[in-house]
Structure formats: structure tokens, C-alpha cells
Amino acid sequence: MGTALSQDDLALRTLARQFPRSTGTAVDDLVSLYSALGPVQTQVPRAAFVFAASRLPGITHETVVEAFESYALVKGTTLRGTVHSSTPLHHAWSAAITRGWLDTSLTKALSLQAVSSDDVRAETAAYAADLWRERDDLVAHVLEWLGEHEPDGRGVAADTSTRNLIRSAPGLVRRPPDRRWHTRTDTLYRAAVAVVDVDVDAHDPDVARRALVRTHLASYGPATRRDVAWWLGERLRPVDAAVDALGDEIVRLEGPDGTTYLDLADAPDGSTYEGGVRMLPEFDGVLLGFEGTGPERGRFTAIDNLPTIFNKVNGMCSPIVLDGTRIVARWRIVPRGARIDVEVLPLPGERPPDEAAVADALTAVEAVLDTEVAELRTVVE
Length: 381
What we know:
This protein is an alpha+beta fold. The chain has 3 domains: 7-24 and 213-264, Orthogonal Bundle (Arc Repressor Mutant, subunit A); 27-202, no CATH class; 277-378, no CATH class. 43% of the residues lie in helices and 18% in strands. The chain has 15 helices and 15 strands. The protein has a 5-stranded mixed beta sheet with strand order 9-12-13-14-15. It has a 3-stranded antiparallel beta sheet with strand order 1-3-2, sandwiched between helices. A 3-stranded antiparallel beta sheet has the order 4-6-5. The protein starts with 6 loop residues before the first helix and ends with a strand. The relative contact order is 0.14.
């Protein structure tokens, strides 16, 4: 395996991928970024915007809106059953490997006997083929259809979690009712094939899995096999099979404590990472590219800080401040009329970020959210 990688080596190699040198701030540049980094978890609407600003400083609110309005980027429920923004191709790959567990979950939740999960998915897509459908109307239609074809399943389908499963079909994409993508809930659903030139159902799961393993390592590597599996929402066996199928494209590296890491054979060595302070969104990939309960979540901050970042009660993840190779603080927006205040909350054991550097980084946030920061303050809890 060669010389063992240190914790610093791991951090630099990942950050060089997560924060490539910016080549521009147009729609095409944003789409290229997504093509390189893969699906981005964005159930908080503004996360897609802050993500763009943190990687392409200077990108404007209108540019990100246009990427979604033109469906150069799409939003859907895919990996791990969570909302992700991605290119249409990555959405299709994600949908291909998500269908397996979704079908199993639907069959169990609906107690299907007369129809299959494929039938439910097909009816959902057919109803949303010609028009954008309100999410409640979509669920109501599927429940009515189930009542006609699977009478014993209709009552069970009224359960909240099962209703969420119905409208989380990976063959669908979602959007808000207007152009306010950064603040509005995605209440409209449509069959993906109706808005993008990608047949979501045409992708073989094994091929898609190999492609996404490659994408994950290109974005978050070096990573353990458990990290890859967690990110995909998959079991280890199919991920191991995908890694084996990729052959010489994948190398194995030794890290701290003898841990084995996977990486692409042609991956960067981390020397291109420029550092600096960056304001990262909720659910950012520097945390969510790694197993939820694994040690790699501590690659950029102490494991003990994770409960401060993640709220187990509501499942939310705070926006974070990255300073060089460390996540050093949380941050939050406080509305102030047409402007906003920003509060920075340092994490225990980390050096608080310099306010002047934070202020500089916030110019990217102002541009992408089309707002102005009235006051920046550090809050020690």
C-alpha cells in the first residue's frame, strides 16, 4: 500500500476535491461542479445556494435559480431516502440504486398483494407525467388507485411515513411553486422523464452503482468501504462488488491506525487545496460524505463536536464554518427585514474563526442569497 496517510493527508486530499479552483460562476460552471462532486443533500432549500457559493464564490442567486429552472440541475428524493440536488444523469443513477430498497419498503408498508411496487411506481409516474402535481394531490391519487386495486392496503397507506414513501418515488423530481428555490418548500412533483432528457428507469442498478462509487471517491475520497456504502444507502456486499468491478481504477491506501481506504488511482494528492474560510450549508458533504456513526465524520472536527452540529431531535444539521482544514464553528442567519444578521458559534476545542475572514467569506453568501448582511457577530454559548 505504500507510505501510510496521516489525518492531515486525508483532510487535504478530500478538501482539494470538495473545493476545486473556481473556473467561473455561470450555469455551466455550476453544472460542471455538480458533475464532479455528485448529488448534494439539500432538503433545506437554501443549502443548494450556499453550497454553490462555498465552491464558486461570486455566483449569483439568479444563476443558481436558472440552473434549476432550466432543469440543468434537478431535485429529488434518492440516496438514503433524502432530498438531493444533482445533474439529471446523477439523479438517474441514484434512482436506479434507490428503487431496490424503496420497492421493498413500499411492499411492506402497503401490504401489497394484488399489485406490485413496480405498479405503484408506474401509476405515480403516469399521474405526474403531463403536469406538475401538488404533493398532497399526488398521494391522494395513489391512495385512491390503491383503494381500487389493493383494498387492504389503502388504510395502511394513510400512515404519514408511508405517504412520504409514495411521494418519494425516485423517478420523480420536485420543485417549489415559483422561482423562490432558496426559501420555498418543494410542493410540486413531476415524472423526471417529462422534464429532462434522461430515462430514469433505463439504468441498470449495477452500472449505476459502479458510476456512483467512482463519483463518491472522486468527491470525498480517500474513504472506507463503509463510508461509500453509507453515502449510497447500500449494504456492503453490493458496494464491494462494484469496487471489485472497477478493477485498477481503484487503489487501496493505508491510513491512521492501519485503516484501509479506497481511492481513485488518478485522484489528486491534496496539494491544490487553497484553504481559507468558507461558509458551508446545512448537511454539507464534508460531513455527509462519510458514515454517520463512523470515525471519518471526525476528519475535519472532533467527534465530540458532532452532537453540537447535528440535532438528533429534529434530524437537522447546522451550517458550518470551515477554516483551512477544520470545521471550527456553526453559523446561523437571523432575518432582519430585507437584510440578515449572521451569528457565528465557535465549536469547543476549535480556534474561533477570524471575523474579518468570515466577513470576506460572507460576500459569497450575500451574492447567492441576494441579500445583505447587516451585522456579523460571534456568539459564545
